[in-house]
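Journal club side-thread
Mid-discussion, someone asked how the predicted structure for our own chain would compare to the paper's figures. Pasting it here so we can look after the session.
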Amino acid sequence: MFAFRKTVVAASCLVMLAGAAYAQSDWLKGSTEDKLKALAQIQPGVGTVMIEYSTRFANLYYSAKGGNWALADYMLKEMREIQEVGETTRPGRAASLKAFESTYLDPLEKTIKAKNTKEFDTAFNAALKGCNSCHVSNDFAFIKYELPKAPPAPLSMKPWMWLP
């Protein structure tokens, strides 16, 4: 019991020291407006968001192909969430991102909920073409998404026995 208390006290001290060091750091200084500007400058842009988005897009594909519809649904949910980050931090891109969501992600969601592989293939291929069309229309024609030959995340793309 004494060793446990000692560990808790030591951990608490480290947390307090880290907090004090963070509070004294020089990067976030000045007026409230200056601090808000500094925080705004470090928010992820759409390029950063798209890295995660593309990974989840590939995992969505492979999980659906593996019959793990629950994982496909989760990947789609996460794609929508990370897209919201891009819409918030880069409002100039929000309309384009929202249009992509309603045009391509909504149909994908329907096929995932229905667990319909044939319709999923059609919706996924349309979304993939939509990605690249969006890049072209937003002056990023040099970015062409291609589905990787294998899922990028070290996840089982097949359903677990206890999943419906």
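Post-session note: The chain has six helices and no strands.
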